[in-house]
Design brief:
elongated; two-stranded antiparallel sheet; 2 helices; mainly beta; Alpha-Beta Plaits
């Protein structure tokens, strides 16, 4: 039996992010991780680490105070069960 799953991509606008890490704390483990990457305003920007663990609930996008997280759901991908 084949199953279809949406492909999910996560983007963080480095220049909007203030490094609050709300996305890191609220999302499932390891979807976002803290990084050593610093944006032009001096904030440490988290990075999406495991997009395959993302459920696509979009809570991180909705809760981000700077609107820096963007979730894009694209075409369905066929999975073998």
């Amino acid at each position: 039996m084949e199953k279809f799953k949406e492909k999910i991509e996560i983007f963080i606008d480095d220049e909007l992010c203030k490094g609050c890490d709300i996305c890191v704390e609220l999302c499932r483990p390891d979807v976002f991780i803290k990084s050593d990457k610093i944006n032009s305003r001096g904030y440490y920007v988290p990075i999406p680490a495991s997009m395959n663990k993302c459920t696509g609930c979009m809570i991180c996008e909705l809760i981000c105070p700077e609107l820096a997280v963007i979730i894009v759901k694209t075409e369905s991908v066929k999975e073998s069960v």
